[in-house]
Design a protein that fits this description.
297 residues; alpha+beta; 6-stranded mixed beta sheet
Length: 297
């Protein structure tokens, strides 16, 4: 019994030593690279060509505009002194937050049927927390609301925040006796209505899992009560008296000058009334009556 062997097409090519007709292909072993600040970042780029033995390799960075990183066999700009390339794989030394972004590796094989291949690598530079900026009011009136703010704009990924009062962590749970709310993402601590027990030293801590947490310097928040002492009472009474006196003086001056409509009406009424009384009063001379009687007869 004979056995028939069937050769596949790739195996036949190997036997005949015929080169493969695969076009240029570009791949990466790590599409997303995360490294700590001030360390080295390796951006992998591997290629295979059909015929081209000396392909052209280029690296570009995409931001607001596309800029060259590696072009015509050399690095550009600030990358010249801190970057190297092996084949098409690029290494950046001492990366900073400015190096974060999307990079493109392009390989051009002019002798291949498909002449261009590319791959994308995203670089994220992790930055540990910095000491956050904290805003704590110095004085708050008892019974009023208050807000405390905390922010670290430099950490990557974004930091989360926790607050401490007199070096004791504030509870973030929703308990009945808690009169405040704490947002760990925004770093805002809100008091609905402060009481004397809320007085103390407050500080905020930022953490993002990259480095050690960092805190701002503690700041004291004082709770004051409104005291109605005799000086304030006297000042209020004097102010009210002066206000009333000025109103009375203004009304009197207005009436005297006739700028008040009501005063003008009353003045006109008195004038008319005085004229009426003058015209209607009978004469007091008795001779007048005699003359009048004789005339009638």
């Amino acid at each position: 019994m004979s056995t028939t062997h069937i050769l596949t097409f790739p195996a036949l090519l190997m036997l005949l030593h015929i080169p493969s007709s695969d076009p240029v292909t570009v791949t990466t072993s790590r599409a997303n690279v995360e490294v700590h600040e001030n360390t080295n970042a390796i951006l992998s780029c591997e290629f295979r060509t059909e015929k081209e033995t000396n392909p052209r390799v280029e690296w570009k960075k995409r931001g607001k505009e596309v800029s060259y990183v590696y072009f015509d066999g050399d690095f550009t700009g600030t990358f010249k002194s801190r970057a190297s390339i092996d084949g098409a794989t690029m290494t950046l030394r001492g990366v900073t937050q400015k190096d974060s972004g999307v990079y493109h590796c392009e390989v051009t094989a002019r002798q291949d049927k498909i002449k261009l291949g590319e791959v994308t690598v995203t670089l994220i530079v992790l930055v540990p927390p910095h000491a956050p900026s904290c805003e704590v009011p110095e004085t708050v009136m008892k019974g009023f609301s208050a807000e405390l703010h905390c922010k670290d704009k430099l950490s990557v990924p974004a930091a989360t925040y926790s607050w401490y009062k007199d070096n004791k962590p504030l509870n973030t749970g929703k308990l009945a006796e808690i009169n405040y709310t704490l947002d760990p993402k925004s770093g805002t601590l809100k008091f609905k209505m402060v009481s004397k027990s809320d007085e103390g030293q407050y500080r905020c801590e930022a953490s993002n899992g990259v480095g050690a947490p960092k805190s701002c310097a503690g700041r004291h928040m004082k709770i004051t009560e409104f005291e109605l002492n005799m000086t304030i009472v006297i000042a209020l009474e004097v102010g009210a008296f002066l206000l009333l006196l000025s109103c009375c003086v203004s009304i009197c001056v207005c009436c005297r000058r006739g700028c008040c409509r009501r005063c003008r009406k009353e003045s006109k009424g008195e004038t008319i009334q005085s004229r009426t009384k003058t015209s209607c009063n009978p004469p007091t001379d008795p001779r007048h009556y005699k003359h009048t009687q004789s005339f009638v007869l």
